[in-house]
Write a structure and sequence with these properties.
The chain has helices at 2-25, 29-37, 225-230; strands spanning 48-49, 55-56, 60-65, 71-76, 81-86, 91-96, 102-105, 111-115, 124-129, 135-140, 145-150, 156-161, 165-170, 176-181, 185-192, 197-203, 207-212, 217-221, 234-240, 246-253, 258-266, 275-290, 297-307, 310-320, 326-332, 337-342, 348-353, 357-362, 367-372, 377-382, 389-393, 397-402. It has a single domain (2-402), classed as 7 Propeller (Methylamine Dehydrogenase, Chain H). It has a seven-stranded antiparallel beta sheet. Strands 1, 2, 30, 31 and 32 form a five-stranded antiparallel beta sheet that branches. It is mainly β and 404 residues long.
Length: 404
């Protein structure tokens, strides 16, 4: 019996590594799909290019799409510039902004904020107001910036720093700022003007806290400071659903970004999660997005499989419903999905698979025909509602794609 178990175990691990090698060497995404899903791809739910030709961008750093899908901001390091473009690709303005690596842009394109996360040598934000960059203001904050967020209407922006501070900027009619202290270092921040609330995910006194625009604490998780300090080495991220009624929390270990857990809160609640969903200690590289109405959460993660002194990795895609229950689980060795976006109603999830392919997965778990890029996908950026994505590839080209 011991010999039999050893043989079975060895064969299982051998299959893992053999299948992984097969995936890495195969160039046919449809072959992976047919094996993984046991079905033929269907010619619908395909991706469509918005521009006839991609835009060339040298030394691309990041991009951000406005909530109304009409504008996007691109940060490039070749000339230390930030550029605002219309959805059709036309350049609206470009300004020098040395050191900036990220940007947030509002609906209408009339408010942009740029920053350099986790860069202690650039503890400042650049605030651009007006559709033609009529006003450019640089504001130095009290420490390295960890994250920033812009409200959908562009009236408010929030920034968190490593000095336990949250800055809330009123963008118009006059630029003003309210600053207050938060428990822990702000790892992420999200702001919503519909509900007049801002949420921060922290570590070093880890948790999620919700405030009103006057800086008054509405709720905090965990509510007890002692419990927060017991999760000292966990990082929390927080994001609003577009309607502002729900808050998605993402928690993972500070070491190897593993042991992922998701939480859902009601914005007007008392800080007790509606549900939590633990992925296990071997889950890492967690990405999650909440739908516009808060009914679904899409996520992908990497799972490590160990057998003796050998290990392999599998990547999984999940769709959770409003009760935190799994509606869809797809992935494994031959189809390793990486979350890119989720549609407003949760009906379609866009994922990247391998180096060059994008796939759509519906809310029944069916996988549809891919879009293959000419070269490897380096970065993606999606609109808040998940209906547009910017794809930057290894040949220096930026494409605007509709995943639906």
């Amino acid at each position: 019996m011991i010999v039999q178990r050893w043989i079975v175990s060895t064969l299982a691990v051998g299959f893992v590594f053999g299948a992984t090698a097969l995936w890495q060497r195969s160039d046919n995404p449809f072959a992976h799909l047919a094996i993984a899903q046991g079905q033929s791809p269907e010619p619908k739910y395909t991706f469509s290019a918005v521009w006839p030709q991609p835009l060339p961008v040298t030394d691309f750093r990041s991009a951000s799409i406005s909530p109304d899908n009409a504008f996007f901001a691109v940060v490039a390091s070749d000339k230390n510039t930030v550029t605002l473009r219309h959805q059709n690709g036309k350049k609206i303005w470009s300004i020098p902004d040395p050191g900036a690596t990220k940007a947030c842009v509002s609906a209408g394109g009339d408010s942009v904020i740029t920053y350099a996360p986790l860069n202690p040598t650039r503890p400042s934000v650049t605030i651009v107001r007006g559709i033609h960059a009529d006003s450019v203001t640089r504001r130095t904050l009290d420490g390295a910036i960890w994250d920033a967020s812009m409200s959908q209407d562009g009236k408010t922006a929030a920034v968190v720093t490593g000095n336990h501070s949250l800055y809330l900027f009123t963008m118009r009619p006059q630029l003003s700022c309210n600053q207050w202290s938060i428990d822990g270092i702000g790892n992420s921040v999200a702001v919503n003007t519909k509900t007049q609330c801002v949420v921060a995910g922290t570590w070093d006194d880890s948790g999620v806290a919700c405030y009103n625009f006057q800086g008054q604490l509405l709720w905090k998780y965990p509510s007890d400071a002692g419990k927060r300090r017991t999760v000292l080495n966990r990082l929390f991220e927080a994001q609003f659903s577009q309607d502002g009624q729900y808050v998605l929390g993402i928690s993972y270990s500070n070491i190897h970004h593993s042991d992922g857990v998701l939480y859902l809160w009601q914005r007007g609640g008392n800080g007790v999660p509606l549900w939590s969903h633990a992925l296990g200690p071997d889950a890492s590289d967690l990405k999650a997005r909440i739908t516009a109405d808060g009914r679904y959460v899409a996520l992908s993660y990497l799972q490590n499989i160990a057998q003796g002194d050998r290990s392999a990795e599998q990547r999984w895609l999940l769709l959770l419903d409003h009760n935190g229950k799994e509606v869809v689980r797809r992935g494994g060795l031959l189809f390793p999905p990486n979350l890119v976006s989720v549609s407003p109603d949760g009906s379609i999830i866009a994922v990247s698979v391998g180096d060059k392919a994008l796939y759509n997965v519906n809310n029944q778990g069916r996988v549809f025909a891919p879009k293959s890029m000419d070269t490897s996908i380096r970065q993606t950026a999606t609109s808040p509602d998940g209906t547009l994505m910017l794809v930057y590839t290894g040949d220096g080209a930026l494409s605007l794609v509709r995943p639906l």
